[in-house]
Each structure stands twice: as C-alpha cells, then as structure tokens.
Amino acid sequence: GERTWDEFLTAHAKTLWACDFLTMRVLTAKGLKYVFALVFVHPRTRRAHVSASTTKPDAAWFTQVVQRFVASVPKGMAKPRLLLRDRDDKFAVGDGAFDAALAKIGVRSMPLPHRSPNLNAVVERLIQSIEVECLDHFIVLGTRHLDHLLSEYVDYHNRQRPHSSLGFATPMGRPPSIRAGPVEVRCQERLGGVLKHYYRKAA
Fold first, then answer.
1. Contact criterion met (CB below 8 Å) for 37 and 6
2. Rounded to the nearest 5°, which phi and psi values hold at 168?
C-alpha cells in the first residue's frame, strides 16, 4: 500500500533536506527593496544553512546557492539526496536553474503540493524563528547587513539554541550534563544582546 508522509520522512531522514525563501524589505541607497535568501534545514537534526541574500534571484545566484549549500554539509553527515520545496514561482527562474543545479550534483528536487505548508513545517518554523528572534529587532540596511544577521543567527541556531524535538540538544551537540551543587552560569551575547546563550562555567 501507499506510505504515509511520516513513513516517507523516516525512510529518507538521513539524506532529506528542505528549503524555503526568506523574503523581507530592506533599506538600501535606492529606498526599500525586497531581498531574498534561501533557508535550508535537515529535518532530522535541525541543522540549518542560509544562502547569501539577493535582490534578484537569477540563474547564476541559484547555481551559487546550491554549490555553497552542498559545501556546508559536514563530512559526518550523509550527502543530500532529496530536497523538499514549495512551488514558489521564483524556483522557475532561468528555466528551472535551481532544480538543474541540484540535479547536477545528484540531489532531486521535490516540489510539494500547492497550499501545503504543513508538509514543509520545519523550515517554515525556522524562518519564523529567524524573523521573530532576530530580524524584527533591526532596521536592515542592505544585503550585506542582512547576510551578517542571518549568518549569526544560523550559527547560533546550530551551535547554541536548544531544540525541544532534540531533547533540548543543539543540532551540533548535546547540552551540558547537570552537575550536583552550585554552578556559575554565564551569558554569551550576539548581535548586541539580541541573541543570548546561557551556559555553565566549566569546573
């Protein structure tokens, strides 16, 4: 019989990634402009990657995005084989340059049915977190500023932000063990205190 969606995700968990566009208006020398970035996430581990942003998602940009995405996957992880995406018209730019760039490196693009955000819920939730926890706190001045904010947030997400679905571990490691007795808690701040990471001082 046909497999359920959960069974499909489980069967492809090691090599399955998902992506979606993050879109926002930023202030430039020529006024407010829409800027786009692609956010990637590995649903099983919640490891994330974000592309450089652009005001014009063309074929050359898509090719560069795919190359940098694949290069970002560490050697300890399985090579991406399947990538979930929605049916945003931007993916059709350059006669499907995004899907073509993926195919060249052995990754199959899997467009999801129309109006089915729940099938891409992990990356949708990640983008919401990026916006609420980071971008909403800034007036973004151009693509370089946006790229810096996104890079800082994704590094924080991968290395420091606990995830309930991972037993409050991070995508790149387990939380510190709880020791008996008093401990000194320290705070590491990013982006002027917008992002905070609390940790126990090593004995």
1. no
2. 65, 25
